[in-house]
Amino acid sequence: MTVAFIWGFAIVGQKVGAEYMGPFLFSSARMLLGSVTMSIPIIIQWQKNKRALGDSYEKKSLGEWVRDNKLLIRAGCTCGVVLFCAANTQQIALIYVTASKTGFLTTLYIIIVPLMGLFLKKKLYWNTWISVIIAVVGLYLLTIADSLRLEFGDTILIISAFLWALHILVIDHFAPKVDVVKMSVIQFVTLMLIGFIVSPFADPYFAEGLTMDKLIDVLPALLWAGVMSAGIAYTLQAIGQKHANPTVAALILSFEAVFSVIGGFLILHESLTPREGLGCVLMFVAIILAQIPVKRSSAIETN
Predict the structure, then answer these.
(1) What whole-number distance in Å separates Cα of residue 116 and Cα of residue 109?
(2) Going by C-beta distance under 8 Å and a sequence separation of 6 or more, which residues neighbour residue 31?
(3) For 114-125, what is the mean pLDDT?
(4) What digits encode the pLDDT tens for the residues 22-33?
(5) How far apart are CA 279 and CA 259, in angstroms?
(6) Beta strand 299-300 with 124-125: parallel, antiparallel or unpaired?
(7) CA pseudo-torsion sign 197, 16, 168, 173
(8) 198: part of which helix (H) or strand (E)?
(9) Cα within 13 Å of Cα(56), Cβ side
(10) Dmax (CA) of the chain
């Protein structure tokens, strides 16, 4: 739920970023801040281990470290490539669509994850399916005030929703097998490197040149999106998914839509209508229902 809270408020920052910076540069700068943030505890722990071992500490070369951590590197790079695609398609879409429609279409991953999970032989229970239905209704009431028309930005967001669902499932696959903090840093660095390579060629289509004045204006939003949303929230997501069913994780993460409404109310002074309030209540009910223990015999899975 902490991750959903951070991501919900980060939507405001991402929307501001879309007005000042190209999507690839903004996403790469976020991940640069995120990788630096999460490298700090790794370095602190490494120093503690080094002091504890004393003279018995054995320094490894880069080649030796790579050889001993092949699975970790593969996990981080795989997550990073998927995250690059998901984060940048969402950031591009924010240029063209409203925040409310972004919240609804992006969080369609709560439907996509269990459907993908069936093909991966993940067990699903009756309460999960009911929770998905309730959550979709809640998200609709929460984010869509008029008719839902599929436009260019909407199409990009639907693609983004599939990519976010894939990211959840990829993390679900790797998280129990590797150090998730180190995996998060590697995925951030992977996204950052790809983004900085792509940015000079792709960003001119989406944004004008970045000036010092623009950088100063966007810096608070960038810090929140980088340090809190990327550095802390993505890592907490990976830690939480070590012990959570991916569908339940998707439902909890989709609660970011609720926090985005709250953030808009507190920061942008937007009002919360009765319709949106009902949507928040339904989302809360869906998340609680999804976490109720049920008998194993009620699971639905593919053969």
Answers:
(1) 10
(2) 188, 189, 191, 192, 195, 226, 230
(3) 70
(4) 899 999 999 999
(5) 12
(6) antiparallel
(7) positive
(8) helix 180-202
(9) 3
(10) 69
